[in-house]
């Protein structure tokens, strides 16, 4: 399965489903076993585990869209002037795509934070 297909599957499943199942496994099974006696495995741990899982597919989509928005004419002109691929990426692509990336980070982190907090609160109430 390619990365693109995996990202589309995770987004199609509305990432919250995967995060909820993951939290159910981590939050209930491991807490029920030994981890609750070693460390206080509360909603903060579950949120830290789920946050990257929920936000990475959204962040990938937004960064990909920002990089795809770079005009190919600039890249062709840079190649014509003798720039290497790493120079083109560093000096042309990243500065042109940079304005489109922070809104993507902001969107994915806020959205995933809402999912994580609600799932963690729900499963914390189940553990009592």
Largest sheet: none
Q: Can you give the mean pLDDT?
A: 72
- As a percent range, the share of helical residues equals over 70%
Q: What is the count of DSSP helices, taking H or I runs of 4+ residues?
A: 6
Overall 3D geometry? elongated
Total domains: 1
- The assigned structural class equals mainly alpha
N to C succession of SSEs: HHHHHH
Radius of gyration: 20 Å
Could you characterize what this model shows?
The longest helix has 27 residues, at 101-127. Helix content is 84%, strand content 0%. With 128 residues, it is an all-alpha fold. It contains six helices and no strands. It has helices at 3-12, 16-38, 43-68, 72-80, 85-97, 101-127. α1 (3-12) packs across α3, α2 (16-38) crosses α6 and α4 (72-80) runs antiparallel to α5. The chain has one domain.
Layout of helices and strands, plus pairs?
Elements: H1 3-12, H2 16-38, H3 43-68, H4 72-80, H5 85-97, H6 101-127
Helix pairs in contact: 1-3, 2-3, 2-6, 3-5, 3-6, 4-5
Summarize this structure briefly.
This protein has 128 residues and is mostly helical. Helix content is 84%, strand content 0%. It is elongated, with a radius of gyration of 20 Å.
Task: Give short descriptive properties of this protein.
84% helix; mainly alpha; 6 helices; 128 residues
